[in-house]
Amino acid sequence: MVRAQTLRLTQPGFTAPFGAQVGRWCRITVADNARIVLGERAIVDDGVTLAAGAGSRLEIGPRSFIGHHSTIAAAELVRIGVGTFLAEMVSVRDHDHDETQQFFGGGQVTEPVTIGDDVWLASKVTVCRGSSIGDGVIVGANSVVRGTIEASAVAVGSPAVVRRERRRTESDRH
Predict the structure, then answer these.
(1) Is the pLDDT score of 99 beyond 70?
(2) Which contacts of 132-139 are long-range, i.e. CB under 8 A and separated by 24 or more positions?
(3) Shortest CA distance to 4 belongs to which of 60, 77, 72, 82?
(4) What is residue 28's three-state secondary structure?
(5) Residue 44 half-sphere exposure, CB side, CA atoms within 13 Å?
(6) Other C-beta atoms within 10 Å of 25: how many?
(7) What is the pTM of this model?
């Protein structure tokens, strides 16, 4: 793991403030007029792919963690909140192939993705374009999120369905 203060990141469009960490073997791709922004003390584990297409924005909030071999790709906007935890091999994308066109060289459909504060996405969760995940949500392993999950929910399955409300202690809310 390399702390941002020791990095000499010269890639245009990538911002990692003091205290942010980027693991080994990460792939960071920033196209023209795109931005990838890590918040303070954000941690990107080993082997993560961060990709921002032309004119897009990918934001990872302060004190958030991106688990090893996860992929976060923005063609328009992906925003991850404060203190959010993505386990290993999570996939978050705000775009998909346009099924009316050829897959190679064809178009894509984009819709922004928003993941709130204090969210936990367990291992191998997939978050599809247009999804919105509220603050304090937990999504179980191998789930597929498409649409909206309201704050403080616990959701599982493919597609992810809310099963109950998250139980939180008073100290969890501060």
Answers:
(1) yes
(2) 135/81, 136/166, 136/168, 137/166, 138/166
(3) 60
(4) strand
(5) 31
(6) 10
(7) 0.89
